[in-house]
Amino acid sequence: xxxxxxxxxxxxxxxxxxxxxxxxxxxxxxxxxxxxxxxxxxxxxxxxxxxxxxxxxxxxxxxxxxxxxxxxxxxxxxxxxxxxxxxxxxxxxxxxxxxxxxxxxxxxxxxxxxxxxxxxxxxxxxxxxxxxxxxxxxxxxxxxxxxxxxxxxxxxxxxxxxxxxxxxxxxxxxxxxxxxxxxxxxxxxxxxxxxxxxxxxxxxxxxxxxxxxxxxxxxxxxxxxxxxxxxxxxxxxxxxxxxxxxxxxxxxxxxxxxxxxxxxxxxxxxxxxxxxxxxxxxxxxxx
Amino acid sequence: xxxxxxxxxxxxxxxxxxxxxxxxxxxxxxxxxxxxxxxxxxxxxxxxxxxxxxxxxxxxxxxxxxxxxxxxxxxxxxxxxxxxxxxxxxxxxxxxxxxxxxxxxxxxxxxxxxxxxxxxxxxxxxxxxxxxxxxxxxxxxxxxxxxxxxxxxxxxxxxxxxxxxxxxxxxxxxxxxxxxxxxxxxxxxxxxxxxxxxxxxxxxxxxxxxxxxxxxxxxxxxxxxxxxxxxxxxxxxxxxxxxxxxxxxxxxxxxxxxxxxxxxxxxxxxxxxxxxxx
Lengths: 287, 278
What we know:
The structure holds 2 protein chains of 2 kinds. Chain A is an alpha/beta fold. Chain A is built from 9 helices and 8 strands. Chains A and B meet through strand 1 of A and helix 1, strand 1 and helix 3 of B.
């Protein structure tokens, strides 16, 4: 059963909590909006997740951030504060519950931020989340350019040089407010030391900042091959999982991760890291 | 551009602050619809039921529906919004979303609006594909006025357009890094949402021109091109030039907002609806 929840300062935010019949300490997957997509999720992904997870003893809480869907446009607090307000509401009403937070795109970034701010966050779901460009991205762009007609090479080279001048921090997605690279590395290490689990999925829909799975190892160094980090690179999928088959793959992957890695009873199984990040030190040599 | 955005924000903010709204579940357990009632201040005689667009146009226009409801409520017209069964936050799977189900949804919603607010009159304001559904439902149910906003005129032609757009989307280089690898169009989806054979059959059987004259004694049209008003419309309003198309952008995050120009039109519509009260 699902319940409509109004929360946050002056109850200006709205969300849907599933699993009212579950015990108070049942874990909760918290799903902020993916960009401007209403809280039901891209192609109703969040609703589908809620229904499947309920059978496995997981709650979900999907909610609208300020100005998205049905939430007030300017309630006096931002996305970060709204996400923390959601966790505060859940923490106060569901004693003992642990949380996983995240989603597609900006929701992944909010999951990261929430984990840094709230110790009850035990899992971060990063679907096309943070990752920095670095040399592997540039190499992938270069090789892709070489595969094009030689008549385009001059224009491509000019654009690459112009972008290189503008982009000095390997942060292609400045709009997403990521921390500087060195801070991101420290934050990742801090969260892993606390025992936080990560699911990191990168699709082919983010070609403006992710083209090569080795970028992950370059970005997060040794943390990238930590057993608490699950990494997937799905270049055949788009950013919002338009195709049903892609959504099914994502649903299976998320549910498996939540049950095996994040559930209170879960212990991280010995599983080899993604082959591309198995030896992060080697990637460091490239920098 | 920035001034435009700022003005839009201010107007929407005013609309949000002047009225309160209340989300709730509508219908029996197992078939509950997510709905929201935007309250009007004072004693209202007329209420508006908003029927949203269909498939991918529905989530894209959710914010717009929210803002339109706020403006109408601020004018004294309580407004009920809802998600069709099997869509949005409502119960049910997308496979169960078809014409019969949508007719039941309208029935629940119209009854609730009348009962809860003690209204004398209910206006059904339907958008895009929702206009086809609303018109066909109104053939069997008493409604005081129908307002069809940017309606899909011919369900059969629209289905052909949707299927063509869906095929293109599945191999779109704007969406896929390797589009040629994708090609499974036999998954029962249309523009990313389930569209059962029943849904397709129901929608393709509907044409506004065949239904409108019998559907309701008062029927208004809100059109992109109002220079040649349809014979079935008692009154025609023109969408402001530049109003984004509901079907013009396939990205899920291309949300529609209430522009200042569109807000003026909604205010005009609302005042005209109030003036219909005897």
